[in-house]
Structures are given as C-alpha cells and as structure tokens.
Design goal:
The longest helix has 30 residues. The chain is 30% helix and 27% strand. The protein is elongated, with a radius of gyration of 40 Å. It is α+β, with helices and mostly antiparallel strands. The chain contains ten helices and 22 strands. A hairpin with a 5-residue loop joins strand 11 and strand 12. It starts with 26 loop residues before the first helix and ends in a 29-residue tail after the last helix.
Length: 608
C-alpha cells in the first residue's frame, strides 16, 4: 500500500528542495539536492505535492478565471481523495473495519447459514431483532456496508499496486543514479589513497560489486551500484497476494454451495438439488454448477475406547462407499474419514456425523405390513442417546376399517443400563445393549396439508395417544426382536434385530479456496521480503589527487538507517582494497614487507 510520505531516504534536512530562482544556490544546498537525487526512487511510494485547499492556486478575475480555478480545485481534490484512498493509512483502516465487520457475522445468526436460528433470535429479542435486521447484521457478508468496505479496500489495493508496479519496472530498466559530489555527507563512508590508476580502481570496483550481485555501471569518475530490489518486489507481491485473496474470497462466497445429506447403510445419494436434506449456496451459484456424481453408503464402522479417561472416544470413524462420476462413470470404492473427504473435481464430501437407524415393522390389526424401514434417530449426547419419530402415513386402517395415520415417538440407546438401573440414557456409544422405547399415537400426522415437517418430530395436535386396558398411556421398552401390541386390535410394532447405522455427509463446493491459500502463502513471503531485505546504493569514486596519487572514496545509502549498511560497505571496501591497496606514506618509517596494508574502516556505525 502506498504512503503519502515523500518517499525520500534519510538525509540532511531540506534534501531535494529547489533553490530560489533568483538566489544562487549555496554549496550546502547543492550537496543536499544531489544527495536527495541519489536517494530518490529507493521507494515507489508516491510524493504528496500539495495540501487540500491549495490546488486551485491564484484565481484570475472574471468568470473564466473562476471556472479555471474551480476546475483546478476539483481536480486537485479528486486527486487528493484518490491519494488518501490508496495510502497505507486508509488501507489499514479499511482492513481493520473489515475485521470488525466480520465479528457480528460470527456471533449473530446469519440468514444464509441458518434461517431458523435467525427467526428464533427475532422472536426472542423484540428490540434487537428489528434493529439488527435494519443494520443488515443477519446477512453481514452481503450487506451494503460490508460490501462497501470490501470494494473500497479492493480499489485501494488496485490503485496502489498498478502505478507502483510500473514505476518499479521503470527503475529496473533504468540505472542507479550517479554519485553525489560530496560522498562524505552520506551515512556510510570510507576513503583511502592507492597507487593504482583511477580507471583501474573503477574496473576493480565494478567487478567486485557485480560479483556481489549489485546492479552497477560506471558513471563519469565513479561506479554507481544498487541492490535490494527484492524488497520492493516483496512489497508488490504482498499487495498482489492481498488482491488475490480478496478475489478468491469473493469468488468463493458468490459461487459456493454447501449441502447436508443423512444416508442410512445401503442407501445412496445423487448430487442433485432434490437429494439434499439441507442446501445453501452463493448468490451467483446455479444448479448447473453441481458436479455430477453419486455414491452409496455400504457400511459405517465406528470403534470406541473401552476404558480409561477417554472411554467412549472414537478410535475408528469411517464410511465405506462406492461412487461414480458422471452419469455412466466407473464405480469405485473409497473410505471417507473425519478430515479425509472424498474429492471429486472441486467438490468435497465430508463425513460430519453418525448415528443409528433401528429397523421397525408396523402391522395393522389383520397382520398386514404397512411399514418396514430403518428409521434414523438423532444423537443427543456423546454416548449416542438418540430420539426420533416413526411415521406411518399411508396404507393403515384401524380395527373399524377407518383409514388413519400412525406415529411413534422413540428413544434409542445403543447401550442400556438395564431396567431399574437408570433412565433411557446410553452408557456407551457402541451397540452393546440396544433398547428402543416407544410411545404410540393415531389420527392425522398433518402431512396432508402440504406444509413441511421435521421428519424427526411428531405433530400430535391432531392425534390421540394409545392407552392400555387400564387407561394408562401405552409405552414400552423393546429389545431387538420384541413387539409392542397396540390396543383394541389396532396392530403392532416390532423392533427388528437388524439395526443399521447412518452417516451424515456434507457436500461442499468452494471455488477459489486454492487461490486463497496460495495468496496467503504469497502474502507471507512478500511481507518477509519487504521487512528483511534492505534497498541500498553504493558509490565508488576514484580520482587523481593533487599529488598524482589516486583517492578512492566509497559511500553507501539505504532506504532507512541500518547498522548493516556500514558493515556491508566495509566488506566491499576490503575486497576493493585487496586489489588497490593503500599506498604507504613515503615519509613514514619502513615496515615489514610482508605486513598487509590496513583496510580502511567504513564510517557510519556511529555517525548518522
């Protein structure tokens, strides 16, 4: 994200400020200007050139003057607003607002996820419900205010990355700027005198800098070099990765789909809209986008810890299925486990829940079978104590020959504690001692009205409960193979020995998730590069002194002050010094011929 700061590197105050047109520039001003030019474009952050209210400049008299001034002022304000929108400060504010906006989306029920909970919240909160509805808090991610923040952030990133990318490309195609006249003004500096010719020193410095992967060239009497372009590359990569993540997130929200299906062993599923128990999707999703496939649940396997503090914890939790892709695809086998989904194209099938489906047989008073099926029961606790409903909607007639409907509310426990040893709560999730408790009703189930019903609950508002000969409510606890006889020749219900298991699958289609993951990794990589890589420039000047001896000057300048810059300059100076050593002073005392010339230390570690 761009910044509204000047983007200049550290240097003397007033660096880069032009001298007055009528006043000759002083040497100090010229030096400051040269240093400012030497440090220019170390960052691609834009430079703010005017303050709000000064865009129009002086207004000339007359209507034309007023129109011209107004045009300049409006244009200036538009540019200033655009600069603020693409600044780092505003982008960070938008990111913060986006994160704040996601909080109510996590804490408040969302209509796109669970409309029933939204309605329950409205019924329970007569004041907050309408207020939240007006603020769009029940559909945060599609609300106007969240979309506005999202779009502004997207525009901010685009407006930042495009001009900075072209500017950076221009820097890569260009050359590092020439050396300032007075290198002593730079943060890191060193010098020595050598007997080598100036041209020879420049050739040595050029080779040393290129070997250290600097972009270097000879400019007049100095070698100019630059390194650390990966810093800006990392910065641009970070911005681009954020855009990729935003696009991937938007794409996923608009075209996503998510559905649930409960399947009993032996049953199957086809990926069509009508096959789902529950289905929700993004605004731009179409049923044509559903991946064509089908699968059958062959069996579910669940084993559990038998002892210890983890008693009842699943050890094996998997569903064996056979699936085929397309209408005529080859049938294949697969195991779906927790966190190990079945993947078909961009669709994933997750195993999310498990339970039992006791098989029951209902007969009328003449012994005719009017219902025979495995009935899924919904778990209520970790030991799979389950509740459900058995509904006989067609084919049943009572002892008088009148057509009725039957309903049974049931509680199933896979491991019963035993009569007199507790209530109907399971003691273990495995089928160690299965028991089915039933209550019977007869009358109208209310399904003929065409209104949707919960398949796991009974609507007894138009039904009567069966009672025994004593006038008490008819209820029974059945073991596998046992039968509960209904009074007055109404028939019977048998708990068959065949107890099946069911598994719940969540079928998700989330396009853009791979792009979002790649964007996250790229953002981390780019951020690391922009934080830990330093953009810096080095100059090596070699000129003949008044006495004919070559004077070598080396100086460095970075985007920000760092102790590593003088260290790096010292290492480079040592390499150049090896091939262009210090010329001994003729008046100095003779030294050992084998002694090496001292390497000049780079200044700047203490001097700012």
């Amino acid at each position: 994200m761009s910044s509204t700061d000047t983007g200049k590197t550290t240097g003397p105050a007033g660096a880069g400020e032009p001298a007055g047109e009528d006043t000759p520039a002083s040497p100090e001003t010229l030096d400051a200007r040269e240093i400012g030019e030497a440090g220019s474009q170390l960052s691609t952050a834009p430079v703010e050139t005017a303050m709000p209210g000064s865009f129009g400049g002086a207004r000339t008299p007359g209507a034309l003057g007023w129109i011209a001034w107004t045009g300049r002022e409006v244009t200036g304000w538009v540019r200033w607003i655009w600069r603020q929108l693409t600044s780092m400060r505003v982008a960070l504010i938008l990111l913060f607002l986006l994160s704040l906006g996601a909080i109510p989306g996590s804490l408040i029920p969302q209509s796109g996820t669970d409309a029933a909970k939204v309605q329950q919240f409205k019924d329970a909160h007569s004041v907050l419900g309408p207020l939240y509805d007006r603020l769009g808090l029940f559909h945060v991610y599609s609300s106007v205010w969240f979309s506005a923040i999202y779009i502004l952030l997207f525009v901010s990133l685009i407006g930042c990355i495009v001009p900075r990318t072209w500017q950076f490309v221009g820097q890569l195609r260009g050359r590092p700027p020439g050396a300032p006249r007075r290198l002593t003004r730079l943060p890191a500096y060193t010098t020595w005198r050598t007997a080598a010719e100036p041209e020879q020193v420049r050739e040595i410095a050029l080779k040393v800098l290129k070997d250290k992967r600097f972009r270097a060239h000879v400019d007049k009497d100095a070698v100019a070099a630059e390194k650390g372009y990966l810093r800006e590359t990392g910065n641009l990569l970070f911005h681009l990765a954020l855009i990729v993540m935003l696009v991937a997130f938007a794409w996923g929200q608009l075209f996503k789909s998510e559905g649930d299906k409960l399947i009993v062993e032996g049953d199957g599923f086809s990926n069509t809209l009508l096959s789902y128990d529950d289905f929700k999707s993004g605004n731009l999703f179409s049923t044509d986008d559903l991946t064509p496939f089908s699968f059958d649940l062959k069996n579910f396997t669940g084993t559990y810890e038998r002892s210890g503090p983890n008693k009842g914890t699943p050890r094996t939790y998997q569903a064996a299925i056979t699936y085929s892709e397309g209408a005529y695809g080859k049938e294949r086998k697969a195991l779906v486990k927790v966190n190990e989904p079945l993947v078909i194209d961009d669709t994933k099938v997750y195993l999310t829940a498990h339970g039992y489906a006791p098989t029951v047989t209902v007969r009328d008073g003449k012994g005719k079978v009017v219902f025979h099926d495995a009935v899924p029961m919904l778990p209520q606790d970790g030991n799979v104590t389950s509740v459900g409903a058995i509904k006989v909607m067609d084919g049943y007639k009572n002892a008088q020959g009148t057509t009725e409907q039957l309903g049974f509310s049931g509680v199933f426990v896979p491991t019963f504690a035993g009569a007199g040893k507790g209530t109907m709560f399971s003691q273990f999730p495995a089928l160690d001692y299965p028991v089915l408790a039933l209550n019977g009703f007869h009358g109208s189930l209310g399904v003929d009205a065409g209104l949707p019903q919960n398949v796991y609950q009974l609507d007894t508002s138009h039904m009567k409960q069966f009672k025994d000969a004593k006038g008490e409510i008819l209820k029974a606890r059945l073991l596998p193979g046992e039968t509960m006889t209904l009074p007055d020749g109404a028939g019977s219900i048998t708990f068959d020995k065949d107890i099946k298991e069911w598994a719940n699958f969540q079928v998700t289609q989330q396009p853009g998730s791979d792009w979002a993951l790649a964007g996250a990794f790229a953002a981390i990589l780019g951020l690391a590069g922009s934080l830990f890589i330093q953009r810096r420039r080095v100059w090596v000047r070699a000129t003949a002194g008044d006495d004919g001896v070559t004077v070598v000057e080396m100086a460095g300048l970075g985007r920000s002050e760092s102790a590593k810059l003088p260290e790096e300059l010292g290492d480079l100076a040592a390499l150049v010094h090896e091939q262009a050593p210090t010329k001994p002073d003729e008046d100095a005392a003779p030294t050992d011929a084998d002694a090496e010339s001292p390497v000049p230390a780079a200044e700047g570690a203490e001097k700012q």
